[in-house]
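Dear support,

I submitted the protein below through the web form. The confirmation email said the job was done, but the results page showed an empty box. After a refresh the structure appeared. I'm attaching both so you can tell me whether what I see now is the final result or a partial one.
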Amino acid sequence: MEVLRSVRAGRTRLRGGPRPAAAGPLLSWIGDERIAISAVPPARTVAGLAGLGVTHVVNCRPRAQVRWSGDLAAERAAFGPGRVAHAPMQDHGLRQRPAAWAAAARFAARVLEEQPQAGVLIHCTAGRRRSAMVAYAVLRLRGHDRTGAAALVLTYRTEAELVPAYVRSVERWLATAPPA
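What the results page shows now:
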């Protein structure tokens, strides 16, 4: 009976420490680059991100998800609209159109260039594929070569996956995009 009450009350652990989400988001800082990757932070933890060194946010979740969950609105309320960029992408494993993410990648690269104390959080739903792609794009914009940018993302965010189609999207865009 106690197990049933715990499940209904939202307590999935009967003994021991806090529930998994109670600790807040797990940020993976990418070396000394001042870029962090994570899964979507729960709305109640967004205000605490500043205490972890985050000054700006790039949200890589699709429009329908951010409307439903309110995470983009919570980020804009906590940091201000000028410190949050939205890169609305579906995670389908196919080419990602630069129209969805390029402005957000440029935003992050510009912030890191102009503000030496800034820390940019890039997140998607799981912190594995779309956020890794945008972090890769930001590193490429900041002068890292393909191998170096990939190594940084994959070394510091071990659960990240650089989807080949996503990487090709970044590289094609870099080859044809006008300078910022």
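Response: this is the final, complete result; the empty box was a page-load delay. The helical segments are 2-8, 63-69, 71-79, 98-114, 130-141, 146-156, 164-176.
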